[in-house]
Amino acid sequence: MAxxxxxxxxxxxxxxxxxxxxxxxxxxxxxxxxxxxxxxGKTTFFNLITGIYEPTTGVVIFDGKPLGGLKPHxxxxxxxxxxxxxxxxxxxxxxxxxxxxxxxxxxNAGLLGAILRSRKVKAEEVAAKNKAxxxxxxxxxxxxxxxxAKNLPYGDQRRLEIARALGTNPKLLFLDEPTAGMNPNETAxxxxxxxxxxxxxxxSVLLIEHDMKVVMEISDRVTVLSFGKKxxxxxxxxxxxxxxxxxxxxGKAYAKSHSEEKEKNSDR
Length: 268
Description:
By secondary structure, the chain is α/β, with parallel strands linked by helices. Helix content is 44%, strand content 23%. The radius of gyration is 20 Å and the shape is globular.
């Protein structure tokens, strides 16, 4: 069953067609990657699903209900969270405070409750803090809850963004180039974390990523955009061998290395 089903999604900016009649599905408990050249429309597609942009045409069904007309915070409340291509943490807040901000949409205490500080409100705050601590430990930031976000290493900031997104209790998490700027060790750690999101948290993941090693290792399915159009979709092995994808994005050098790797594996 598709957790998210986008049908005929288009977005026009004046005379520019950024996304052109794209059909796209994300099954439950899956990791799906969206790849393509710069300017292919990948982040625009993210923004259409998460309520930042309104589609020019098409409909998006999430968890059996349409998302049309919802604002970003309403989409989050429905169960979709995201990180951004450029890190958007609250730099002068601690790691713990950043995750608590993410949890805010799931808390019940209103303005009056915050003023009166009832027993119920205090209990909810304790539960929220405990959950935030657990999420920090899950992403590998245990013991760093009191450090300011701006003082964390780059890889830790990326993981903190994921912890904050998890604080919204999502069913679907959008990750926009999460390994950008990371060294190989940081990339490997984050790749393992993405897999854990599905296996340990039952969270589906939509991934925009330029590191093809990460994409091919972790994805259940891969969709390729070029100039706003979907040019291919399938299993990672199918995408590797797709001539149109090689021509538009992966390049002949990648195709050659893939062919050599395939021959090497067949000789074993």
